């Protein structure tokens, strides 16, 4: 894998509150941290995406503790931060332009939630022509009822979202798969 931007979506304190419901991938934050550590080591671009709600009372409303980044995954001053008000990280955020100006053509997407902001952002990335990878064990989502009213576990919702993305919009990898593609040899 050549220089890819790591896009970390909505890893905010509000996503770790119990009120958000049953989730899958309890190790997702640890896998995101592993990827973030490597990206920093090889000095590849990192983009932190933060959801800022337009709904008063939301945990993601500006100034609420839920809108703050989770401390272990907080951006460094040198890392780019994008704020969004809708699920798609590209809409009205300047993200596409920021990537294009830097010649970045490959994206690795992690974060939450697979069935919402991750899926929306990965679809747009694929549609915009970016070579996009979504890391299955560094993303997570929540249980929900489908349109017919059938309860779906978080694992089921996650699996369907990844299936929706696979091939057409993104390549689905695990953390280990992604890390194995990075060449750590010194560049001459």
UniProtKB/TrEMBL annotation:
This protein's UniProt keywords: Hydrolase
UniProt KW Glycosyltransferase keyword: no
InterPro entries: Isochorismatase-like_dom, Isochorismatase-like_hydrls, Isochorismatase-like_sf
Membrane-spanning segments: none
Domain of life where this protein originates: Bacteria
Keyword Hydrolase: yes
Residue ranges occupied by any Isochorismatase-like domain in the UniProt entry: 4-175
Matches recorded under SUPFAM superfamilies: Isochorismatase-like hydrolases (SSF52499)
Gene Ontology molecular function, alphabetical: hydrolase activity
Entry-linked PANTHER family: ISOCHORISMATASE HYDROLASE (PTHR43540:SF1), PEROXYUREIDOACRYLATE/UREIDOACRYLATE AMIDOHYDROLASE-RELATED (PTHR43540)
Entry protein name: Cysteine hydrolase
Organism for this UniProt entry: Vreelandella nigrificans
